[in-house]
Amino acid sequence: MNVGKAFFAGIVGGAAMTLIIAAARAAGASADVAQLLGTLPGNAPTSLSWLVGFLVTILMSGLIGIAYGAVFETITRSAGAATGLKVSLVHLALAGIFVGLVGLMHPLVPEVVAAPGFFMSRYGGLGILSFVAAHLAFGAIVGALYETVTPEETAQLK
Questions:
Q1: Contacts of 152 by beta carbon, 8 Å cutoff, 6+ apart
Q2: Is the pLDDT of residue 158 over 60?
Q3: What is the model's pLDDT at position 149?
Q4: Fewer beta carbons under 10 A from the terminal one: N or C of the chain?
């Protein structure tokens, strides 16, 4: 497996996700995953906490990119935008549950930070749409950047 390629693809996918969520925020949804993660330790929402949350998002995206790479190598035996899109359905389901659980354990919810709900459902239809679109885009981007798994790369797993 090409860990570097997978990690890089995840970072690019994570940046795209952040842009999609930011677009939803600009359109009126109160979705802000970076701020949610940045304030998880209990600190007040600030520009610094947003930056910390963004960095956590990017790091997690890189690690999830590696998981996608492992799936491409061992399960699908191929990569590409369409394959990444299919893999993202599992990622979407798990992340939708995770974001709902984060809201339940976040120390600043509901006094300072709004709970996102499962699949960001508490941010309305635009929140759900942006969450789904961001995860589908992540999968397509990671799959496209990881590209076709070559037989030589697959042989390295054995």
A1: none
A2: no
A3: 54
A4: C
| Secondary structure (H, E, C), the chain | CCHHHHHHHHHHHHHHHHHHHHHHHHCCCCCCHHHHHHCCCCCCCCHHHHHHHHHHHHHHHHHHHHHHHHHHHHHHCCCCHHHHHHHHHHHHHHHHHHHHHHHHHCCCCCCCCCCCCHHHHHHHHHHHHHHHHHHHHHHHHHHHHHCCCCHHHHHCCC
Mean pLDDT to the nearest integer, 36-57:
95
Are the C-beta atoms of 149 and 9 separated by less than 8 Å?
A: no
d(CA 113, CA 134): 21
